[in-house]
Design goal:
By secondary structure, the chain is α+β, with helices and mostly antiparallel strands. About 30% of the residues are buried.
Length: about 675
């Protein structure tokens, strides 16, 4: 029962005093429950709601029993709760195996096991289940924040483990925390060696079929989709160039190319002509090469958004060890599986390039198709434009310039919130509302060009980047997701046309993205100090980038590069294994030597007792090695009488400090006590 606060006592101070005077078992149990709750908490974002509710309820129930001194529930009740959890898991996942079901059951087991904390062995089971639970978090996320959160969980578990092995008395949490910190620091060298040299056969964490990456790209484009992605300001990729970065208006990262339109949604082309009659890539590059390195965040799509145009040439094409990466006929780089983990690739782009057939081929007819009976007003407008004097015999570029001129002068507005459009969305956008995002302008432009019998298609990807380098990298965000158009021109092939630049040139030239209103915290920081908000964001993303580059992207190639710098001419797996074994053996020998030295070193408490026994023997007080301070104080009073009372009181103080309710005897306290004892002993000599 916890006493209520007394009148005149501040509640915070009262709660602190109550915590300090809790019985040790209660305090240690509450601390352990808090650590388990901390460890479980990130899983609540991924697991079924009932699992989180059950786990937190069980932990709260166990804490209430500890505070009240109540009896633990019977094993039958615990077993019943476990069966309920298993049934719910089966109902949710249709299995008790696999990642989701396994982690769900593990969380439930850890929580239920706290209802059986009757002895130290029960606590040890909870500790080691907790350590295993820490590992499972990396199946969901390897982000820096996750690592920092779990670092706190590991420290808490180590602290609770140290408390369970501490002797009688009431050692403070601070001392157990210091022991846990030292233990963790002792393990750091081994951790570093294993991280650097342990062979990387494949991804250590992650089940590709279960990953849930985010991206600003998609395999299709429905009006309104890119605008919603533009509200996502998270990082999509980071790119670093060898030499100066190109201007913002040349930073086009090519993603899915969409050519089939049903009136509202664009999808990939399904060719209707034989392969020999379809347009090919026919890529020709010119000008200086632009070498770059790119780190792509998980995007759940089988593609790499490479800079236009990165050719499939030796030394220029991107590659991922163990993956099949190839360039499609539409210029997009395809992978044989979705990107469900961060990848770092290099490539060489040529900003001066031509691609696509130079002469007309039958397959280009697929790229002038439009759905029947859709957007009739737009089709009529396109026919009227084509019939104007001077445009009846115009080529595709001249027609495109006429359409762009209309966009510039007809009162169109570039906005992130154009609202929902009806079935004939192009008609409504082109004539009525004239409000839209890049997808609206690109879609309407391609429809108009096709209506004038010019082959055209939509290209999605990213355009532009943050203007300021962060840790040497340009950051491309999901809010840089963009859609533009390509038209086919005889003798030139495919030509990029960005209709958005006609109404919002700053979007392309300076990569000034539209942004939604900031949240409460971000808005407050921005209103107080916009420069500070930008600096904090840049610092955090720089830290994230270094975590990605140095830790998550550490690869086999970097392991071999390290061995080469250490003098190994042609490193392979055997060199890695030999180096790892040699370092581990050296560490084991160092640990054995330290254990031998530590074994020969006398415990400070035992050394103190031996010195006390020698001083008491000099005063004529016979004591045995097994006598505690209290027994020695009794013998001092018995043999030295009233004159030995100060010395006996000093021994009583040692007994209280060693075995009392608030026992605490760090080495400085032992030294001070010995000084007092030696002074009292000299006074009696």
């Amino acid at each position: 029962m916890i006493a209520s606060s007394t009148p005149g006592t501040k509640p915070g101070i009262d709660r602190l005093q109550t915590w300090r005077h809790l019985p040790r078992d209660t305090r240690d149990t509450l601390f352990q429950l808090a650590v388990i709750a901390w460890t479980v908490a990130p899983h609540l974002l991924h697991l079924p709601w009932w699992c989180g509710l059950m786990s937190m309820a069980v932990l709260a129930w166990r804490g209430w029993l500890s505070l009240r001194g109540g009896a633990l529930p019977s094993r039958w009740l615990v077993a019943g709760l476990l069966l309920v959890a298993a049934a719910l898991t089966w109902w949710q996942e249709r299995t008790l195996l696999g990642k989701e079901a396994g982690i769900t059951m593990l969380v439930v087991l850890v929580s239920l096991k706290t209802l059986e904390l009757r002895a130290r062995r029960d606590a040890l089971v909870v500790f080691f289940l907790g350590f295993f639970l820490v590992l499972t978090h990396f199946l969901y996320s390897q982000a820096l924040l996750t690592g920092l959160w779990l670092l706190g969980a590991v420290w808490g578990l180590l602290t609770a483990l140290a408390l369970a092995h501490m002797p009688v008395g009431r050692p403070p949490l601070a001392r157990a925390g210091a022991v846990a910190t030292r233990a963790a620091l002792l393990g750091v060298p081994v951790m570093v060696v294993l991280f650097v040299l342990f062979p990387r056969i494949g991804p250590l964490w992650g089940l590709p079929q279960d990953a849930t990456g985010r991206t600003g790209l998609s395999g299709s484009l429905r009006l309104g989709g890119v605008a919603s992605i533009a509200e996502d300001d998270s990082v999509a990729l980071r790119v670093r160039f060898e030499g100066p970065a190109p201007p913002q208006d040349q930073l086009y990262f090519r993603g899915p190319v969409l050519s089939t339109f049903d009136g509202r949604e664009w999808t990939r082309l399904t060719p209707t002509f034989p392969a020999a009659q379809r347009p090919r890539l026919d890529l020709q590059v010119a000008g200086p090469p632009l070498r770059y390195e790119m780190t792509v965040e998980p995007n759940q799509l089988p593609l790499l958004p490479m800079l236009e145009m990165t050719p499939d040439l030796p030394g220029a094409a991107p590659s991922i060890p163990g993956w099949l990466v190839l360039q499609r006929v539409d210029g997009q780089w395809q992978t044989d599986r979705p990107l469900v983990e961060r990848q770092r690739v290099t490539g060489t782009a040529y900003l001066q390039h031509r691609h696509g057939p130079r002469q007309d081929v039958l397959g280009l007819r697929d790229l002038v198709d439009l759905p029947p009976n859709a957007n009739p007003r737009t089709l009529q407008w396109a026919a009227q434009l084509r019939a104007q004097p001077g445009l009846q015999t115009a080529d595709g570029l001249q027609l495109a310039e006429a359409v762009l001129r209309h966009i510039r002068t007809a009162g169109f507005t570039y906005t992130l919130e154009p609202g929902a459009y009806a079935d004939n969305a192009i008609d409504e956008f082109w004539f009525d509302r004239k409000l839209g995002f890049c997808e609206h302008f690109a879609s309407a432009f391609v429809v108009v060009m096709r209506a004038m019998d010019v082959p055209a298609r939509i290209v999605t990807g990213y355009q532009g980047a943050d203007p300021v380098l962060q840790d040497g990298y340009l950051i491309v965000r999901n809010s840089n997701a963009h859609a533009w158009a390509e038209i086919w021109v005889p003798q030139r092939g495919w030509v990029r046309v960005d209709p958005t630049a006609a109404v919002a040139p700053e979007r392309v030239r300076r990569s000034e993205r539209l942004a939604p209103p900031p949240g409460l915290v971000a808005g407050a920081v921005n209103s107080l100090n916009p420069a500070l908000a930008q600096q904090l964001r840049a610092a955090w993303e720089t830290l994230n980038n270094r975590w990605n580059q140095w830790v998550l992207n550490y690869s086999r190639g970097q392991q071999f590069d390290l061995l080469r710098r250490l003098g190994v001419q042609s490193p392979d797996w055997t060199d890695l294994a030999s180096s790892l074994v040699a370092l581990l053996c050296a560490g084991a020998l160092a640990g054995a030597a330290w254990a031998w030295w530590d074994r020969r070193r006398q415990d400070p408490w035992q050394r103190l007792q031996a010195r006390v026994r020698e001083r008491l023997a000099a005063l004529g007080v016979a004591v045995e090695p097994h006598h505690g301070p209290r027994e020695r104080a009794r013998r001092v009073r018995q043999q030295l009488g009233a004159g030995g009372e100060p010395l006996a009181a000093t021994l009583d103080a040692l007994d209280q400090a060693r075995y009392g309710a608030d026992a605490a005897l760090p080495r400085p306290a032992l030294r001070r006590w010995w000084q007092d004892f030696a002074r009292q002993a000299r006074a009696l000599a």
